[in-house]
Amino acid sequence: MSNGARVQIREQSHEQKDKLHRDAAEKAKLNINPKLVKLISVKLKEAALDSPSFRASVNYFNSQVDQTEHWIEGLLKSLKKYPQQFNDFKEVNNVLFNQLIPDFLKDGLINQDNSVAILDTSKTNLGSLWESNTKALELKEAEITELLSEFSKNEIRHFKDFKKNFEFFQNKFDTLISKYSSQNKSKDPSALREDAFQLYEVRKSYLAASLDICVEISKLHQQLDFTFVNLAELLFKGKVSFDEKYFEKARAWSVAVSKSVKTLIDDMIYSRNQIEEATISQFTPSRDLASHNPALINPQTLINEETEPNNNNNQQSFEKHGWLFMKTTVGKPARTIWVRRWVFVKSGIFGLFSLAPSKNFVQETDKIGVLLSNIRYAPDEDRRFCFEIKTIDVTIMFQAESLEELKSWLTVFSMEKKRAIENSDSDSGKYAFGRYPPLLYEFASTSLTSIDMELTTSKAENTKDDDTQTTVVSSFLSQLVGGKEHLDFRLSGTVGDFQEPDISAPMITKMTKLSILAHAFLNSTIIPTAVTANIWGSVNWGTYYVSDHDISYKLNQPVSDSNISSLSKTHKYPDFYPQDLKTYDIQLKSLFDTSVPKDELVVLHFSCLWALNPKQELSGRCFVTTENCYFYLNSTGFVALLKKSIADLVAVDVTNEKDWEVLKVYGIEGLNMKGRIFLDDGKLIQKKLDFLINNLSKDEPKLQNEVIQILKQIETDEIKKIEKKNSIKRKNTDASVQSTSGSTQINSELYSFQPFSGVVSHNKNMKTNYNDEYHQCTVRTFDAPAKAIFHILFGDHSSILRDSIRFIDNDEYEVSPWYSKGSELIREIELKLKLSKKLFSLKNNNAGESVVQQTIEDFVDMKYYRIREDRTPLKIAMGQVLQLTKKYVIIETDTKTSKLYIYTKLDSIDPGVRSLFAPALRKTSKSFFKDEDLTMIEQIEHNVSRLGSHGKIIKAIRTFGNLSKSDEVYIPKERQVFNFTLNLMFRLYFKKFWYDLASAILCGSKLIFSYLGKILGELAMNKLILLLLGISLLFNSFLVGKSTVSFWTAKKAEHLVKDFTKELNMNKMERAIYINEIDALSSSNFNESSICFTKFMNSGNIEDYASQSVDKRFRNSRHEIAVKRNELLVELKILEKVEKELINGSWKNFLLSELNLCKKALEDLNVTNPDLEIYCSSCIEDFQKVSA
Predict the structure, then answer these.
(1) How many domains does the chain have?
(2) What b/e readout covers 738-767, taking b as 16+ CB neighbours within 10 angstroms?
(3) pLDDT, mean over the chain
């Protein structure tokens, strides 16, 4: 539907792919650990894209439903006729039996003694046989009719309603998009925008119908399974050949699948809604008129250079998939038409997919390297948004749906060409220069348009840089398989040497089974092909989703390994590979594609209902090779691929339930996967998986041909065992049956897991009692097999001995490999002990260097191990020398437990030496070594508990190591002597100082954070109180802040006033009037001519008042008087001025009163008196002076 995904850089993580292609379906509500499995809703994804694979799959399923409906109708018609015809048949046979031996034969015609008796016996037996056979032919036609009628009436009719709705919107969408794309670019942009939104609304309806029919197809699949299981039971129930136990398991499987589907349908609907939302957002038209106006397109801005990777990673590439209209011609005379083709660009190659004329499978054209083509925008074309791809042989004109799509396609082509040029020396770059026809004619395009025929060839020659040519030639799959012209599994269930694939692929078309078969001759590829399109869809989703697997392996796989240009003409399987496994191997390769190495072959397969979590299960298939387990799950449209290395598995457990068996697969960390097996033999699968796990843990695992033979023998032995049990049951005996094995060789392969290659178990008497030879014994039983205890103690990575010996210097501890010495295996451990020379020392070695020699005296693998340990003699005080010898005996008590004996003895090497304290020191030494044994046992118990409850042997081997063996006698390495210089000592102490400082800081930080953690933990207990306390603190903080601001504002103002006042006081001016300044006013009081006065004035006591010789008190008093005099004079001046103003005011008021009287007398009363006039004139003059 969508015209392709947006341009994206393909990196290792598939989550960075296009949002439409990669993200939406993963939002389903499945509670699944992402590290375990990732679900892919392939059908919904393909429906969102409206890809050719989706259309072909829906069309093919519709035809199958029609065939099923016709078959049911024909069967119901036959069932209606069956009772009458069956009764007629019985009547005819009854008449035949009555006439078989006539009565007249008994009248003496034949021998009455024997011949008649023989005929009667034959008639009786034949009648009994006929009666039993007629009962077997009876059918429960009423129940069968009801079952099939209900299914046809309800399920098929319900599906056909959705089918009708889907076909209506599909036809409407196809018609409208063809009409919309054919619009001339000269049309008004606003009208084009309206048409785009009209197409958008129809596309939404078509998308909803497409997603709905995917959900209905999943539901109908489940109903078909349930109906046909019930039909099979009705056909055989009550018959002699009816296997009730088998059908009970089949019924349980059907119920379990139905329950699983009901849970997953809800998740599918949720995923469907998520995909619908994501898809709608992808094809929403732009409202900008410029996006609908081709006249405004600037060819220089069509390629978005910003999508180029910021880093120069040559492994990154661009890819795009989607629908384009292609210009071509058809018929004679040639008539130009535009047809829709699915185009992809990936890894420097582009190609085309199309529906076959029957519309029920996908075909392909040649794939062409981008460096062989020139891509440009085509503004001269009548249609909008066209671009041209021109190669040496053909010119192709494509039309995108929108301006955004046009930019996207041109950008992808440009970026891929640039990347291919930059990587021209790599295989990926070289393949961008080639042309590759379809490898199989059955999948080549058969369209009769001119461009399709030019793009579809059967042979191409590509020239490499060294001028060599490689030829790619198409072949018929039928010829590769067996020379038949037509391949059809329906006739015999086989084609050539291959059986019909019995697996449900993610996408099912008419050619899906042949696509799976084609993987027997094609190599894996990451490039989309018609073969993969008929299995995985047009985008080949399987290359992006494989859990627990490095995706970079697939994405960065050399293209030289791709099936683009390589096709084997003969079977690629070795001669030893069984025919029945080939079918399952090609199924594995077709599903996991590039995730499966070429040299891996399927050696085991089984079906199972895998538990994703406690509530959800998915039915699927497990393919097992000698290296890996591949799990393929497919239910209700959800597909999951999971790859697990057998090296990560430790055990397989099977428990029997009433109608199924529970298979549990354990890894090193515990339960890895869990599933239910219904119709296969769970115990047989467990034995085969256990063998494969054990085989891979060996130093030299068996080869594939050997593994296949052993697995066949295991199956043969199990069949014989079952037949023997059934035979005993038929005889109704209660005798117990001892489990037997098929052959000694197979048992040795299954149960004799040798720790050393080339060393054979001795199979001697498994002796455990050595009390007569050793002084003390420590015994303990462990909940682990004997072999696990053996590796815990003596594995290459075991540290049990080092951690048990007291006073050991851990820095000097070296273990040699095991080496042969006669019939024994020996290894030496060099270590250093920190001993007190006054009490203990090593004989002939005062440096504390000791050698521990361990010797494997005997073992029966998996059952019994005996190891002797000799240590360097120990010299105690007073000269006595003691030799310590230990013996470890490990024996199997049952399949899950074992017992360990540790024997210890101290022998005196020089018994002639006597010492008073020797007995006490000897006793102390025994106690010392007893504690050493107990410490060792405690460590073994701790390590056994870490192994878990399953796969303890494998875990022990992987944790504590195998036992490495050397063919040469071990020669100790010379010890390196370090010379400690002053400079070295200084550097060591300097580093130690910084180390101690860093340690102290870290310890302090750890202590602080631990206390903080405790405080926070305590605080978390009272969240409500803390919330109220926090609110109170915030409120109080606000008030305190406000008060603080007010206080400091007032304080600042106070300081400002004080500073201003102080400044004023500092700048204050005082005026003082001394007596000499008023001499002119009171000179009469002094006799200036007096000689005494003159002397007084000249002495400076009065005039030089600032002199230091003048008395300070006199000076201050006189200054105060002068200041006060000034103040008094100022006050007198003020009084004088006030008095003058007062008098002046009174004088002014008097003048105004007189002037008013003058006015009345002279003007109002017209008085003519000269004196009065003179008086009034005088008043006027005086008033004018006062006013001035």
Answers:
(1) 5
(2) eeeebeeebeebbeebbbbeebebeeeebe
(3) 79
**pLDDT tens profile 2-38:** 333 333 323 223 333 344 344 433 333 333 343 456 7
Which of 127, 117, 122, 119 has the alpha carbon at shortest distance from 96? 127
Residue labelled with tokens 């001993």: 835
In a domain, 732, yes or no: no
**Which pLDDT value is given to residue 750?**
35
C-alpha distances (whole Å) from 479 to each of 569, 583, 964 are: 9, 18, 52
Cα separation, 220 vs 226, in Å, equals 10
What are phi and psi for residue 193, nearest 5 degrees? -65, -40
pLDDT (0 to 100) of residue 1084:
47
Confidence check: pLDDT of 454 > 70: yes
Q: Tell whether 1026 is covered by a domain.
A: yes
Q: Is 810 found in the same domain as 834?
A: yes
Residue 701: asked if its preceding bond is cis (omega within 30°), the reply is no
Q: For residue 170, what pLDDT is reported? A: 95
Q: String of b and e for 941-970 (b: at least 16 CB within 10 Å)?
A: eebbeebbebbbbbbbbbbbebbbbeeeee
Residues of the domain holding 832: 776-966
Closest CA relative to residue 906, chosen from 810, 738, 776, 1079: 776
Do 863 and 784 share a structural domain? yes
Interstrand relation of 349-355 and 362-364 (parallel, antiparallel or unpaired): antiparallel
Q: Check residue 728 and give its pLDDT.
A: 67
Structure tokens at 908: 């005196």
| Collapsed DSSP state (helix, strand, coil) of residue 364 | strand
Report how far residue 417's alpha carbon sits from residue 840's, in angstroms, rounded to the nearest whole number.
80
Query: How many other C-beta atoms are found inside a 10 Å radius of the C-beta of residue 775?
Result: 13
From residue 696, alpha-carbon distances to 446, 746, 798, 913 in Å are 49, 16, 21, 56
Query: Do residues 283 and 380 share a domain?
Result: no
Spell out the long-range contacts of 651-658 with Cβ–Cβ below 8 A and sequence spacing 24 or more: 651/690, 651/693, 651/950, 651/951, 651/952, 651/954, 652/685, 652/686, 652/689, 652/690, 652/693, 653/686, 653/950, 654/682, 654/683, 654/685, 654/686, 656/682, 658/252
pLDDT tens sequence across 708-757: 999 999 988 888 887 777 666 555 544 433 333 333 333 333 333 334 43
Q: Which residues of 273-293 are buried (b: 16+ CB within 10 A; e: fewer)?
A: ebbbebbbebbebeeeeebbb
Helix ranges, 1088-1169 (H): 1091-1098, 1112-1159
- Tell me, what's the pLDDT at 567? 47
Tell me the pLDDT band of 234, cut-offs 50, 70 and 90. Answer: confident
Is residue 421 domain-shared with residue 349, that is, in the same domain? Answer: yes
Same domain membership, residue 205 and residue 227: yes
